[in-house]
Amino acid sequence: MVSPIERRKVALIPIQDELSLRVGKVMEALGLEGDPLIRVAQDEQFGDYQSNCAMGLAKKLGRKPRDVAASIVDKLQIDDLCEPPQIAGPGFINFRIKPGHLAERLKTIRPAPVPGRDRLGIDPADHPEVVVVDLSSPNLAKEMHVGHLRSTVIGDCVCRILEFFGHTVYRENHVGDWGTQFGMLVAHLRHVRPEVVNEPDKLEIQDLESFYVEAKERFDRDEEFRKESRQTVVALQSGDETTMRIWKAFCDESLRHCHKIYDRLGVRLLDRGESCYNDLMNEVIRRLEQGADADGNPLARESEGALCVFMDGFKTREGEWLPLIVRKSDGGFNYATSDLATLIHRIEELEATRIIYVVGLPQKQHFEMIFAATRKAGWAGDHIRLEHLGFGSVLDAAGRPFKTREGGTVKLKDLLDEAVARAREVVTQEDEHSKRDQSLSPKQIDEIAETVGLASIKYYDLSHNLNSDYRFDFKQMLDMEGNTAPYMLYAYARVKAIGRKAGVVFEELPADAPVVIEHPSELRLALTLARFPEALAVAARELRPNVLTDYLLELSKAFSRFYDRKLGVRVIDASPDEVRLSRLKLCDLTARTLKLGLGLLGIETLEQM
RNA sequence: GCGCCGCUAGCUCAAUUGGAUAGAGCAUCGGUCUACGGAACCGAAGGUUUCAGGUUCGAAUCCUGAGCGGCGUACCA
């Protein structure tokens, strides 16, 4: 006997999984092994889902694919879910979901509980994990620039998705707060702001970028200053109290700059810079020098004066091994050392079983080597997943590396400001043409512009495949139509307006509101709504935000058709009551799905725009 | 030199990882409509998936080679 809770769970298994389960069972009964290969049908005319398993099986069995498909269909008990399956082409099994089943499915989704807690009936993961996500991680020596956008936005999205599924997520901001350049910066700071020694908390630096340039300029010009800078590095490394205080004041001020941006973007982060791992550096070296790999060979050895780890799979064809240098010939450490130290901390202290680095693709090889070294040293067992979630670069509209006209880096703040300014133009312009009763107040326009501007940047970034570079184009990302944030936000605002106009508070729709699916546009919308869990599951499994954006676009389009004058249905003035209620419920579900989906992308919705 | 990644419609990008006639959105052209937010909807056109071979029932996807572009390749991060 199935308990009510289990029954609820069963009812909410994504359709795709349900089909997979059913077909899998039949395959088992027939003594067939393999994946049922259930896919969303790519062409509506074939149905809603299809199974592609028959062709592969036929080959193995030496039978005709269509016969295999027929024997599966023959034994399949599935009439509660869909129309009789059709066999087509070389041996596809096509499924069309029954409207009644969709209605049942949507009915089980209860009205939204506490705002922000809406799960749309999706269960958390069965086995929650401790996950570290390494994201953003700017260098504190300078201002944040375009190069930090993707890591921050993608990383935040990944965190939100993992958190939604109930995992414990450490959002690690592994900022660059250590290294030789800080000697120079601290020395410079001490000269131009001597008061920092006594009042470190009051330090304010308007522009970190020009501060860095000043320091660098002096470093290149002034022999005496160069010497001082190097001494400062030594002082930092030996933990000299005054030097540390100035250094910390600088880092804190730089972090305040960063967090202004994070706050604006709605990104929450845990700052834990490289310097936090200083004490672990020697431990890394100690372990590497004393430990042995699985074959009993030393983990590290000296080469050309540097301490290196050599690993299988990282050598040239000539047989030259590619080293991972963990101690330079001058005795200093480098980023490989600190990355290894950080990994030890994350595995042994945070007890993470999954560590995800959201860092650009150019560093792919570096992470492969770091991971390989960690495995070789035995610090990460098989149960620990180490992943590099790489992404392509942001290019300008001409496809060149994103730079200012003068060739400098573009500050992230300037980029956000420009997006908001352009969004304001769009919002103002559209407001004048709007059919709403009241136009927006200046204050509303400001708020809307801020949300739309930032949302546009995020959405545009997330809607691209992680793997590829993309061209940053304000005009495209702020377009009211197409796969953009403004279109999505508009769709949401429009649905919410329906509720207001109908005099219905969506949250107060009866829990047992009927769902009636009759019209083709209702069917399409219902099917799309029911697919949210599987789209989200794919996005989560493969850590691919653009799967989610694609789905949301699909949903928006399905809604627009549903609400269309010609091809859609009436909603507010629909009758009888049962039908009206059902359509309002579809509106409610659309709004909630958009809100939840956009929320997981890190995008705020607007009730009105 | 070696390695990794990319090349898909005029443009910007997808393609659930080997499935049916390769899909969207811009832009273009045409259509719907006294209207629940038209900031909409429908349709047309647009392709030898860089090229050449191969693997198989079936390839944008896998293999081999070539071309173009980007990145990495011993002490920056």
The poorly predicted ranges are 1-11
Coarse morphology: globular
Mean pLDDT: 92
What is the total tally of β strands? 14
Report what the structure shows.
50% of the residues lie in helices and 10% in strands. By secondary structure, the protein is α/β, with parallel strands linked by helices. The protein has 4 domains: 94 residues, Arginyl tRNA synthetase N-terminal domain (Gyrase A, domain 2); 144 residues, HUPs (Rossmann fold), CATH 3.40.50; 115 residues, HUPs (Rossmann fold, 3-Layer(aba) Sandwich); 159 residues, Isoleucyl-tRNA Synthetase, Domain 1 (Orthogonal Bundle). A 5-stranded parallel sheet has the order 7-6-5-11-12, with helices on both faces. The chain has a 4-stranded antiparallel sheet with strand order 1-2-4-3, covered by helices on one side. Strands 8-9-10 form a 3-stranded antiparallel sheet. A hairpin with an 8-residue loop joins strand 1 and strand 2. The two termini are 50 Å apart. The relative contact order is 0.10. The chain binds one RNA strand of 77 nucleotides through helix 3, strand 10, helix 12, helix 13 and strand 14.
